[in-house]
Amino acid sequence: MNHLFGNEGLRALDELMRGSPLLAFDFDGTLAPIVASPEAARVSPDLARRLGELAQRLPLAIVTGRGVPDVQGRLGFVPSHIVGSHGAEDLSDTEALRERRVCLDSLRVRLHAAAGPLQHRGVRVEDKGLSVALHYRMARDRGAALAAIDQLLTPGDPAWRRFGGKFVVNVVSRDAPDKAASVRALVERTGADRAFFAGDDLNDEPVFEAAEPHWLTVRVGRDGPRSAAQFFIGSTAEMGALLDHMLGRLATRTAS
Fold it and tell me: CB neighbours (10 Å) of residue 213?
């Protein structure tokens, strides 16, 4: 991966903004810095202002692991679309939402039975309705916490699937779309001719891997040398400059 603000990255960004792109962003670690307490995560007012301006000009989506109601109050602006629970929570498909929620009931039974041991190991359980996250970032012994999670999820259930993240194990229904399928569906729904996607975690890699050649994908952070993203920015601190560049190209296009 090359840095987005190098010559090659800036050319790719300029080419993106000449078209009619969908702009899609992960939330945690992308628009909001990773914090010890997930309840404290917010988009900064300056970033929210820029995102709001972009959302008035182009379709802009948040594609996040959080539940939709949870992330809505953390943005500070109104995006065109929000897809939650890593792709499982798309409010445009109410029947699928009900079925995907029910698919996780067998997991909820296991979680109830194992609540004590999980808490003892420092695992925090977050039931988002359409997905369940088992966090072990704050565990004293992360290895033991992950082993407890593995024990809970073994044997697996054909109704759901698991995947990892940064000190978290996520579980969704087996048929739930991932972020890649969600971004592709949003491109079709909005009539965009290309897509931009920025993310920072393992569950964002499917988007990077499945991106069309004319899309632009950006990983936030330097901790993914094997990432399939085309470019990277160093941290969320560089997101403001990225959005300013997008807004500048839109202004130039309007003026011409």
Answer: 6
Contacts of 18 (CB under 8 A, 6+ apart): 249, 253
In whole angstroms, give the CA distance from residue 80 to residue 205.
23
Instruction: For residues 27 and 126, give the distance between their C-alpha atoms in angstroms, rounded to a whole number.
Output: 17
**Helices 239-255 + 7-18 axis angle, to 10:** 50
Of 35, 122, 118, 126, nearest to 85 by C-alpha is 126
The per-residue pLDDT for range 172-183, each reduced to its tens digit, is: 999 999 999 999
The string of pLDDT tens digits covering residues 10-50 is 999 999 999 999 999 999 999 999 887 788 899 999 999 99
Let me know whether 9 and 83 are in one domain.
Answer: yes
The string of pLDDT tens digits covering residues 117-137 is 999 999 999 999 999 999 999
178 falls within a domain: no
- Which residue segment(s) compose the domain that 124 sits in? 94-173
pLDDT number for residue 256: 62
User: Does 81 lie in the same domain as 17?
Assistant: yes
Cβ(23)–Cβ(196) below 8 Å: yes
52 and 8 in a single domain? The answer is yes
Query: For residue 33, is it within any domain?
Result: yes
Residues 80 and 196 both lie in one domain: yes
Strand order, beta sheet including 21-25? 2-3, 231-233, 216-220, 194-199, 21-25, 60-63, 81-84, 89-90
CATH number of the domain residue 216 falls in: 3.40.50.1000
